[in-house]
């Protein structure tokens, strides 16, 4: 059997700024520069100061990308590289030049740049002023977005405003909002910890919506590009047939995907009703007034700005979960984050699922759930255009470095599942992006998880890149437009 994709299907691979660029002295600090330098935060004590040094390997990296034959390459702009203090008052021309050159070289090689504006590396100068909770945060993002549209937009036809709001609004703020253990007022701290993710998510959604409108009003006519946003997307299977677990699995999807997708992609806009109702109920149960719900409200004007503010939905898809409801004890336990307690769900992994990338990793191979989430999106949001903006896995720690058979198998399995979703289920998927081009800095896992199609020798001063087997495998897939 053959799995051929529709004509014009986009084939891509991806990286993000902090994970590959290095050259930390040639830009303003981001929250990740600061966080990684605090002992104990990253598993192997490493940081992205140098990473793959992609900032100084521009020509070489474009050749590596071209050698794969991709039609698109997704990368992110480091906000603090173009705006060292985060605001428009100080533009770093060298940073702007770097991204322009990268775009130019890609275009010369017939590769379309796909730019993510925000891939978690928030400017530290803005963080010190309150970050996403500052009243001007939306304006700061809009100024930055406009600058990028203006400087790179003649070369870029596909923009992604945010990478995985769920991840940075939820896991990001709970650990980095400065809620230190020394806080004297622990009671307020708890309430903050509960409210901040929803507030940050709200600010990010508004930033996305307003940046989309800027593109629409000021740039689209001339540049003719499209603007989307990338979601964290993990499918949830109920852990059992019990109504409580079925409900929990639905809430898991709602709290992660629909929280962000519904305000943008639904016809009515605003937050999902089930989330709003549940948080209102909690307010009532806890003797707070309805209006005191922890979930912010959009004004009518804001709701309209955000609703319909995406030309496509980006999906980062890796794994799924078996989701169950919480026990009474868990609901009252401080071990579980507020979001899980508010939503009343807990994600687990089926021990029978094929584990990949080593025993300790969070990855497993459940490709059959990819069509499920795509159909969920198709049904719920009127079959929007979807771009798979990430899919891939890390090498098994004992795998012979260049023989990355596990990656090939994982991606093949997912491509077959994706093919089914497109051809049998009629999901409107425009393209597939393999994460990642290079082995790189995998956030708190440092350099211990290697997602690259190219191996990077981090002990070599030149950071030599060597193709793994997946490079020629992926090149074949692209040449054949499928398997
Ligand atoms: C999603 C993130 O966008 C990316 O930065 C990360 O490296 C991959 N997942 C793998 O964990």
UniProtKB/TrEMBL annotation:
One family name in Pfam for this protein: Glyco_hydro_1
Enzyme kind, highest EC tier: hydrolase
A GO molecular-function descriptor: beta-glucosidase activity
Protein name: Cytosolic beta-glucosidase
EC number(s) from the headed UniProt entry: 3.2.1.21, 3.2.1.46
GO biological process: carbohydrate catabolic process
Source organism superkingdom: Eukaryota
Keyword tRNA processing on entry: no
PROSITE patterns: GLYCOSYL_HYDROL_F1_2
SUPFAM superfamilies cross-referenced by the UniProt entry: (Trans)glycosidases
Catalysed reactions, as listed in the record: beta-D-galactosyl-(1<->1)-sphing-4-enine + H2O = sphing-4-enine + D-galactose; Hydrolysis of terminal, non-reducing beta-D-glucosyl residues with release of beta-D-glucose; a beta-D-xylosyl-(1<->1')-N-acylsphing-4-enine + cholesterol = cholesteryl 3-beta-D-xyloside + an N-acylsphing-4-enine; beta-D-glucosyl-(1<->1)-sphing-4-enine + H2O = sphing-4-enine + D-glucose
Keywords: Glycosidase, Hydrolase
Family according to the record: Belongs to the glycosyl hydrolase 1 family. Klotho subfamily.
């Amino acid at each position: 059997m053959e799995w051929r994709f529709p004509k014009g299907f986009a084939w891509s691979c991806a990286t993000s700024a902090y994970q590959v660029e290095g050259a930390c002295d040639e830009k303003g600090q981001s929250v990740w520069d600061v966080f990684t330098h605090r002992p104990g935060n990253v598993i192997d004590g490493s940081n992205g100061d140098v990473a793959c040094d992609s900032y100084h390997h521009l020509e070489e990296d474009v050749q590596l990308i071209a050698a794969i034959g991709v039609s698109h390459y997704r990368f992110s702009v480091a906000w603090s590289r173009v705006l060292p203090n985060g605001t428009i008052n100080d533009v770093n021309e060298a940073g702007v030049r770097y991204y322009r050159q990268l775009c130019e070289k890609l275009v010369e090689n017939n590769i379309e740049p796909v730019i993510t504006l925000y891939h978690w590396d928030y400017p530290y100068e803005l963080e010190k002023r309150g970050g996403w909770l500052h009243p001007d945060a939306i304006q700061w993002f809009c100024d930055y977005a406009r600058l990028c549209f203006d400087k790179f937009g003649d070369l870029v036809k596909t923009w992604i405003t945010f990478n995985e709001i769920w991840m940075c609004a939820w896991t990001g703020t709970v650990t980095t909002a400065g809620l230190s253990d020394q806080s004297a007022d622990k009671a307020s701290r708890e309430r903050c910890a509960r409210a901040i993710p929803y507030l940050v998510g709200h600010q990010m959604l508004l930033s996305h919506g307003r940046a989309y409108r800027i593109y629409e009003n000021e740039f689209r006519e001339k540049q003719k590009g499209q603007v989307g946003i990338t979601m964290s997307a993990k499918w949830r299977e109920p852990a059992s047939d019990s109504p409580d677990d079925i409900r929990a699995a639905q809430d898991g999807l709602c709290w992660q995907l629909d929280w962000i997708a519904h305000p943008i992609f639904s016809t009515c806009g605003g937050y999902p009703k089930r989330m709003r109702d549940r948080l209102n109920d909690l307010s009532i149960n806890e003797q707070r007034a309805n209006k005191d719900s922890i979930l912010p409200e959009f004004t009518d004007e804001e709701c309209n700005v955000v609703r319909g503010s995406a030309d496509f939905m980006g999906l980062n898809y890796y794994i799924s979960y078996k989701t169950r409801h919480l026990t009474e004890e868990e609901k009252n336990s401080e071990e579980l984050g507020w979001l899980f307690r508010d939503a009343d769900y807990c994600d687990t992994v089926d021990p029978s699922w094929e584990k990949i990338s080593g025993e300790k990793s969070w990855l497993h191979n459940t490709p059959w759930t990819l069509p499920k989430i795509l159909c969920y999106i198709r049904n719920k949001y009127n079959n929007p255009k979807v771009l798979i903006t990430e899919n891939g896995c890390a090498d098994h720690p004992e795998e012979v470095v260049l023989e990355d058979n596990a990656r090939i198998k994982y991606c093949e399995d997912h491509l077959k599942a994706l093919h089914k979703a497109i051809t049998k289920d009629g999901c409107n998927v425009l393209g597939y992006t393999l994460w990642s081009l290079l082995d790189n800095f995998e956030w708190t896992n440092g350099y211990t998880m290697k997602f690259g199609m190219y191996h990077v020798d981090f002990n070599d001063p030149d950071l030599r890149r060597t193709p793994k087997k997946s490079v020629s495998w992926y090149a074949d897939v692209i040449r054949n437009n499928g398997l």
